Amino acid sequence: MKLIKKLGTKINKSGHYISFAIFWCDPCKQEVERQLQNGLKQASCGCILSNYKHGNTSTKLYYVWSAMKQRVLNLNSKRYKDYGGRGITICPEWTNDYIVFRDWSLNNGYKEGLEIDRRDNDKDYSPENCRFVVRKENVRNKRNTITMKIVNEIRELWNTGNYTQKELVKIYKATSSSISKIINNKSWINEAKENNKLI
């Protein structure tokens, strides 16, 4: 958040002096008061993830919703680069309303222990592209799963002469050895399995 004005210090219940300030929260377009150090680190006042009116914030499904929003909307999330950072979005009705997401989930197969999965990994989180699956099936659908289609993509990119082996490793999140075997038309299957990149 953007610092607007420092407010000085206050004494908390433990008798410690805490610095407070006014910050501008860009997602909800309003000024908020926060502890200085917290506000300097936070991407929002909590509005991105908060929706307390439903009373479901302690449920596992609420965590699924919150984690999805973190991956797509929070620039500081470790997983942002693989989601929001590459253009993946969440449909507006889910982004702004947990209840809509909850109701869709309960009517479309959600049970505790299942994970949300996008049928097409290059498309957004939306009712048309999402389902709930067990973890094993979700892992199979990760971008770093090496399929024959991806093998052909890698070979085509390599043959253009515009990509180095190191760049292909980064793009496909594979090992150097796997990429080397693919571009040299050797078997990559055993090593891919060892690295959980082929199911």
Strand content: 15-25%
Q: What is the overall number of helices? A: 9
Give the overall shape, derived from the CA principal axes. Answer: extended
H and E string: EEEHHHHEEHHHHH
Radius of gyration: 22 Å
Q: Tell me about the biggest sheet?
A: 3 strands, antiparallel
Average predicted local confidence, pLDDT: 79
| Poorly predicted segments | 50-54, 190-199
Structural class: alpha+beta
How many beta-strand segments?
Answer: 5
Helix content: 25-40%
Number of domains: 3
Distance between the termini: 42 Å
Strand order of the largest sheet: 1-2-3
Helices and strands in order:
Elements: E1 2-11, E2 17-25, E3 30-35, H1 36-41, H2 60-73, H3 92-95, H4 98-106, E4 115-118, E5 130-133, H5 135-140, H6 148-160, H7 165-172, H8 176-183, H9 189-194
Antiparallel strand pairs: 1-2, 2-3, 4-5
Description:
There is one protein chain. The chain is α+β, with helices and mostly antiparallel strands and 199 residues long. It has helices at 36-41, 60-73, 92-95, 98-106, 135-140, 148-160, 165-172, 176-183, 189-194; strands at 2-11, 17-25, 30-35, 115-118, 130-133. The strands form 2 sheets. A 3-stranded antiparallel β-sheet has the order 1-2-3. Strands 4-5 form a two-stranded antiparallel ribbon.
